[in-house]
Structures are given as C-alpha cells and as structure tokens.
Amino acid sequence: KINSERLWSSLMVMAEIGATPKGGCNRQALTDLDKAGRDLFVSWCKEIGCELRVDQMGNLFLRQKGADNNLPPVIIGSHLDSQPTGGRFDGVYGVLAGLEVLRTLNDANQQTLHPIEVVVWTNEEGARFSPAMIGSGVWSGEFSIDYGWQRADKQGATIKQELERIGYLGETPCAPFPIKAAFELHIEQGPILELINKQIGVVKGVQGMRWYDLVIHGQPVHAGPTPMDQRKDPVKAAAQIIAQLYALADEYAPQARATFGDINVTPGSRNTVPETLTLTVDLRNPNQGILQQMDQKFRQISKQVCAACDVDFEILDEWNSPAVEFDKTCIDAVREAVEETGIAYEEMFSGAGHDSVYVSRVAPTSMIFVPCEKGISHNEAENAKPEDIAAGCQVLLGAVLKLAAE
Amino acid sequence: KINSERLWSSLMVMAEIGATPKGGCNRQALTDLDKAGRDLFVSWCKEIGCELRVDQMGNLFLRQKGADNNLPPVIIGSHLDSQPTGGRFDGVYGVLAGLEVLRTLNDANQQTLHPIEVVVWTNEEGARFSPAMIGSGVWSGEFSIDYGWQRADKQGATIKQELERIGYLGETPCAPFPIKAAFELHIEQGPILELINKQIGVVKGVQGMRWYDLVIHGQPVHAGPTPMDQRKDPVKAAAQIIAQLYALADEYAPQARATFGDINVTPGSRNTVPETLTLTVDLRNPNQGILQQMDQKFRQISKQVCAACDVDFEILDEWNSPAVEFDKTCIDAVREAVEETGIAYEEMFSGAGHDSVYVSRVAPTSMIFVPCEKGISHNEAENAKPEDIAAGCQVLLGAVLKLAAE
Ligand SMILES: NC(=O)NCCC(=O)O
Ligand SMILES: NC(=O)NCCC(=O)O
Question: Keywords on this record (chains A, B) (predicted)?
Fold first, then answer.
C-alpha cells in the first residue's frame, strides 16, 4: 500500500518550484525552475538508491534495480514541465507517483524481478517549445535528434542551448531500448470522471491531434481614410476562419475540438490595419478519418475566406499526432489492478496528448487517469482530491507489480 | 516660389533617420531616433535664424520673427514621429514644408507682418503612446499635463520619462497662446485625390474617431479533453464581435470605419484556451451622431456576444475625438491660394486624425492635403510624387502669406 501523505506532500513541495500567485505553477521546460524541479526529483530518487541516466534530449531515467537486471524494465513516465499558467498536478503527478511506487517497494524491502525506471520526459507541454511531447517523440524515433535540438522558443533559444545551459544535455543516446511495459498516471484534464463519479479512468488510447500556424498576410493601411472595401485586412479573414472552424467542431460534436491558443499581429498599431496575423490552430478528434476531414476542411476554409478577403495565407504544419490505441496487456493490467481495489472505473480515451503516445510506438504502453476538479487543467486553479491522487497511485503500483513480476 | 528640390532632399535626408529595409520609416515618438530627427530639424531652423521654444510636452516651436512681433503668429505644424512600420511623408512632410516656407521667405529676404512659427507636435501617431495627437491635445487643454506625462508605452515607459531621457522636456508651459491662423499640410493617407486626379485637397474638417480596448476574460482550460460546450473561450467571443463590427461598418458604408490593429492573448499557449484576449477597436465616422450610434451598438454587440459565450468583458475607453469643422477664414485662405496657382482641388474631410483637430479648438485652423500613391499610408511603401509634394508646399506658402500679411 502506497503512502498517500508522502505522495501528497512531495507534490506540494514540488509545486513550490514555480508557484504562481493564483496557486498554480509556471515551471516551463528547460527554464531555471525546470532545472530546480529536476534537481529535487533526482535527489529524492538517489535517496532510495536509484541510478540516473540523462539522454541527449534531457530525458531522465531513474532506475531501481530488479532481481534480474538483464530483463527489460517496466517504466513509469510523465513530465515535470508545466504550462505558463499551469497547475500543480499535470505531469508532475505521474512522475512523483512513480517515485512513490519505488519508495513503497523500498520501504517494504521488496524487489521486483524486472528493474523499474521512473522517466521524466522533456518538454511535454509544447508550451515553450512546439510541438508537445518532444522528448518522448525523439526517443521513440518520431523526430530526429537534430529536429528536437533545434526547436526554439519565441525568443529563439533552442532546446539544445537550453539543455546545455541548465546542465541536462546528457550523453545517453536518445533512442528506445527493450521495455517490458510502460505506464503513465495523469489527471484526466477533462470533466468525464468527475461527472460520472468514478475514481479511475482505464485509458485505452489517445485522440488524434494536429497543430498548425495559420499566417495571414494583409496590407497595412491607415485606419481612418482607407475605405473598408479597399482593405486587405488579415483580421477580417481570421475572424471568419475562426468562426467557421468553431462551426466545423460543432459539425463533428461532441468529440471534435478546435482551439486557438495564441494570436499575434504585426505591426500591432491601433490605427493601422495589420500586415500579418498569426493564429495557432489546434484540431482534435479521436477518429483519425474525421480528423483528416477536419484538416481538409480547415485548408478549404482558409483558402476560400482568404480569397474573399483578398489576403494571402500560408498554413505551417506544426504537429500531427494520429490517434493511438494502447497495448492490450497493459490495459488489462490496469483494469485488473483497479478491480482488485474495488474502486469504480471507466474505460476511456484521452483528449490530451501524453508522452505515452510516442512511448506506445516502441513499447507496450497504457495510462491511468484520475479526476480533476471540474475537469479544469492548463489553469492555475487545476485541482485534485488527495483521495483520488492516492487511488491512482495505488492502481499504478498494482499494475506495475503485475508486469514487473513475470 | 518654394524650392521644390530643397524640400524633397530635406525629406529624403530626414527619412534616413529610422529608415527601414522596406523603404519606410520607424521613428516612433520619443525614441533615440525621434531625438535625432528633432535635433536635425532644429539645426536646420537655426541656420535661418529661428528661435526655439520647447514646452512641457516636448512640442517644438521654431519662430521666425515678423515685422511686428507683438502680433500673434501664424503657425504651421505637424509631427516628426512615425508608425512602427510607417512611411517617409506622414507628418514629417508638414513640418519640413513649414521649414521650406521659412527658407523661401529667408532667401527672398521677405519679412511678414506677423511672426511665423513652425511647430512639431509630440506623439501624433498614438502608436507608441495612446491616444494619438497627445502633444497638441495637452497644449489645447483637451488633456491635462499630468495625463499627458503619465501615458506609457507597452513596456511601461512614460512620456515624461522619455522626454527627460532624450532631452526634450521643456519648461515653456504647454498651453495655448494667441494665434493668427494655423495650417497643416499632410499627405491624404487615403485614395480619393488620386482617384479623382486632383492635386490638392482643401480640408474642411476631420471625422470623429473613438478608440477602445475590449478586454475579454475567459477560463483557461486544456485544448484536448475540454468539450466545446463547456468552454469560456474569449477567442470565440472576439471572432463574433469582430465580424459584427465589420457588418456594422458596412451598415454605415461607405463612410464608417472599423479597424482592429492589435490583438493580444494570455497566456498565449497553443493547447490552452486563452484566459484573456485584448482587442484594440478603432471606430470612425464623419457624422458625430452616427459615430455615437456605432459606439452604442459596439457596446450592445459586446454584451450580447459575451453573454452568449459565457465570458466576461470590459470596454476601456482610450480616446474620443469628435468630428471637427475647420475655420472658414483659414479654409478660404487655402482655397484662394490654390485657385491662384490654377491647380485642380477638391474640398474634403479628413479620415485621419491630425494635430489640427486639437489646435482648431483654440486657434483658427485648416489643412491642406496632397495625394499619396494608392492612398496607402501607415505602411513602409507610403509614397508621394515630388510634383504633388511641391504643389502642396506652394499652396501652404500662399495661404500663410495671406494671413501673415494682414
Ligand atoms: N497533457 C498535456 O497537457 N499534453 C500536452 C499535449 C496536448 O496538447 O495534448
Ligand atoms: N495622421 C495620422 O496618422 N494620425 C493619427 C491619428 C489617427 O489614427 O487618425
């Protein structure tokens, strides 16, 4: 049985690193605060005898030896980075729950047959560096190491520079190795479990998602003397495209999602029609075929609207993460572990991307969800109940033990 | 007769201060480049014996003595600051044409009865510091000196700090004094004169304009798991409001204008519904009653859309510049001056705000326009023909001489 108070208090100590005034967390990937979070986590793991490997993407592998260290490890992974106005649970919960599993086994002097590794993946959020899940993405072979290293934040700092700066550019090749099973425990980040009053989500897969930058080029002119019908106004085009994409999401309701998280205009002067408008577009659907249709319609809508508004546009493909189905053995292990506890559960798909999406390409993988308050995440107010946090970790321990033992 | 080559070459020399790669000008108010432009202009004026006064808002008054210096001066004013991606004529043309008038009189050894002052008004554009025309606004009594001093740019630097920094915080009180007549020569910044093939606009007034910041408050949530119908999404509200305001401008076509020059969202993360969206809104109409209706409808639209989208909003009133009619005597002086040259002219209203809007509250005022290429302004590609530039200055000289002589 895990120590739920120890887990909760570790979460709260970690949440102080990057704590925000509104009770959330801003510990973005590869900042000084991310370094501080990593340092603290590594020190906790070393206290119980784990060995650290750091790979070329700064992914951390904390290894607890098994009885037979030639056998492939069971891995428990998630991330320590946060959104700019993020919460205290997204990602860090999965990492510290992994630590709690190791601490529990250590307290009980129990050694598993397979080694166990807790993994911290670099830049899962995609908030500072796009795309998301890049540490696990490079590791799994989805992206090359050069692509990963060269991704830059809005100020132009690259992942490689920032890894070097904070001392987490490792030498271990960023590449997959034999793995017995991979688990990731996470808050749901959506409202379903709370709504149906179940404490555990047995996650069977992850919906497909695509990221784009839509760049619209207009003509800067004076806001006063220029007649409306002589303008090439990127804001006019953007407003119509956004409205039509919300309508597109409605067309494929309730599953489809359309989100516009960032908008920038240049030169950004009140009395000048903008020259350029850049809009981030995030489209999602659990059905890969429908996501494909949404992608096509997004391109058509952009083309039609921009032609009608007499502006040019380009669509930059930032990310394409197809829908994923997890491994049956891992899903079964989670289901059996939760059934043994008697906790009410629901089988479900994830609306958010997770490192498990990429890990699942090279290792048997599944995930466990717990409810979060009102389904709110990517928000400083993100919250979860201590009893749910404990239940998720207990199920994780059960699932890990099943597959680490045989 | 003015020296058109000298005027053109002065314009081109000044355009090097803040020259942009695309052939425009970025000499924003109270930057180091603005200081350099002011220094150059003052040195040119001193060469022909003008005296400089700098007032508390950094407005510059360059005085050429008349035969009777107890008589009120005729003033010729405009601005040297530019948009971030501005052109080589907006504002600076009016200032350097004023200098060319003085140079011409100086060459001819001709002294007017009234003194003449060329005036450089601070921060006309409103691009770095909102609102526009603040130097002339404080001077005319529309704004208090404290309001003017405390206006800050996006980085928080105030006008007073920046005036001090560049050495243009003067001691002369920023307040009106007796003035015989005030003229401002400017490129049209719109397409009318070019379209109707006339070289001079006799400007009878300026349309009304209002600036707002619309701030929409939503709830940040995750782009993936959060159902569309459970979001409080400020982007959704903004897209609808923008579309309805374009429709509103159409309703009052062809005179009405609606422009959205700047949009900012926080936290600005791709996979998070924004917490806040701030939109600048610029509404204009030459008919003050219709502008009032547009203002009311803007507030109604914002209220209805935000209620439907379940988001909060506030409208911050940034600026309210009612429609203005210029002084009959000054308008007549311009009309007579242009008729004497035989140049084709049009009587018209200005779509852009100008310092003359505020000057006209305390002094008899009017303006002269010349065409600019395709009506494009607030754009690095802003252009004007040397012969039009010369014609405008010749008409200015004629109008000034009429009222400075009696
Ligand atoms: N869990 C999470 O926030 N993942 C980031 C990738 C995504 O946007 O779904
Ligand atoms: N002429 C000019 O650009 N004025 C600035 C004020 C406005 O936006 O009209």
Answer: Hydrolase, Metal-binding, Zinc
- How does pLDDT run across A198-249, given as a tens digit for each residue? 999 999 999 999 999 999 999 999 999 999 999 999 999 999 999 999 999 9
Q: Is A267 on the interface with B (CB under 8 A)?
A: yes
- The three-state DSSP-derived secondary structure of chain A is CCCHHHHHHHHHHHHCCCECCCCCECCCCCCHHHHHHHHHHHHHHHHCCCEEEEECCCCEEEEECCCCCCCCCEEEEEECCCCCCECCCCCHHHHHHHHHHHHHHHHCCCCCCCCEEEEEECCCCCCCCCCCCHHHHHHHCCCCHHHHHHCECCCCCEHHHHHHHCCCCCCECCCCCCCCEEEEEEECCCCHHHHHCCCEEEEEEECEEEEEEEEEECCCCECCCCCHHHCCCHHHHHHHHHHHHHHHHHHCCCCCEEECCCEEEECCCCCECCCEEEEEEEEEECCHHHHHHHHHHHHHHHHHHHHHCCCEEEEEEEEEECCEECCHHHHHHHHHHHHHHCCCEEEEEECCCCHHHHHCCCCCEEEEEECCHHHCCCCCCCCCCHHHHHHHHHHHHHHHHHHHCC
The fraction of chain B above a pLDDT of 90, given in percent, is 100
- Which chain A residues are Cβ-neighbours of B352 within 8 angstroms? 222, 224-225, 271
* Cα-Cα end-to-end distance for chain A: 20
CB count within 10 Å of CB A57 equals 27
In this structure, the residue with its CA closest to atom 7 of ligand 2 is: B353
**Strands A60-64 and A116-121, sheet pairing:** antiparallel
Whether the CA torsion A221, A224, A228, A230 is positive or negative: it is negative
The average pLDDT across A119-134 equals 97
Q: Is B155 helix (H, G, I), strand (E, B) or coil?
A: coil
A72 part of contact set with chain B, CB < 8 Å: no
pLDDT band at B406 (very low <50, low <70, confident <90, very high): confident
- Three-class secondary structure of residue B367 per DSSP: strand
Chain A residues touching B218 at Cβ < 8 A: none
Q: What is the pLDDT of residues A258-279, one digit of tens each?
A: 999 999 999 999 999 999 999 9
Encoded tokens for B208:
């009304």
pLDDT at A406: 82
Q: Residue A305: pLDDT band by 50, 70, 90 thresholds? A: very high
Tokens 């010729």 belong to which residue?
B76
Averaged pLDDT score across all residues of chain A? 97
How many angstroms away from the CA of A42 is the closest CA of chain B? 28
